Description:
The chain contains 10 helices and no strands. The chain is an all-alpha fold. The protein has helices at about 5-20, 20-45, 55-60, 70-85, 90-115, 120-160, 165-195, 205-230, 230-235, 240-270. The protein is about 80% helix and about 0% strand. The mean pLDDT is about 75. This is Ribonuclease. Keywords: Cell membrane, Membrane, Transmembrane, Transmembrane helix.
Amino acid sequence: MRVSHNSLFKHLWIKIGEDDVSGFSAQLAYFFLLSLFPLLIFLVTLLPYLPLSREDLLGFVRDFAPGNTMALIERNISEIMNRNGRLLSFGVIATLWSASNGLNAIVKALNRAYDVEETRSYIAARAMAIFLTIAMMIVFIVALLLPVFGKEIGLFLFSELGLSHEFLAVWNTLRWGVSTLILFIVFTVLYWLAPAKKIKCVSAVPGAVFAVIGWILASSAFSYYVGHFGNFSSTYGSIGAIIVLMIWFYLSGFIIMVGGQINAYYSKRNEGC
Length: 273
């Protein structure tokens, strides 16, 4: 069945208002901020057990984080870790709780997009949110490990051919491809499992594609704006970096919500065929 893009845009315009997408995006921004530092603390405490450095971890975040927020993130991580190095258990609990709250907000928003009621019990819904949180943490660690191992393997193979310098130039491009693929997998699984409605995995692909492309473009554009035009420090003073971080999280949440609306639209169209 042929789908009119005009009808898709009209549907999104109406549903974004009806389903309070902006309100859910604000909720997600709040929960993203709450879970960011516990997640990074947890990952930093895992570094001694992984072939990774703190720079590898923060470098992954730096690829997407806008403006001067990395200075805020690095400073706070260093201060917290210097105060108490035994934060692994706290990091796990805090990350699971705060991130699962964010996923609960996503579940509610996706249920509203599909016009379905939550049929799962509170315990089942929370367990699913925690499971998705753990799965995303594992995917995030894999996303960190793949570039490290890929670079080492590539350097070994290409050095045998005397092409190590050429490989490094190519690898900087391929690294973005690996990150994009990881993001696509995360969004696909999220859109597939989160709604209280049985859908096929392939049905989650349109929204995941939109979310990946939209998030990368929005992050890059916002980062460029903050770096060249947005002087948040003069307006908000010392909390300017927090404001930038919250706006970035809000944009990220909005894009995730719209991706769910796109999947719901195509799902309803297919059911009506």
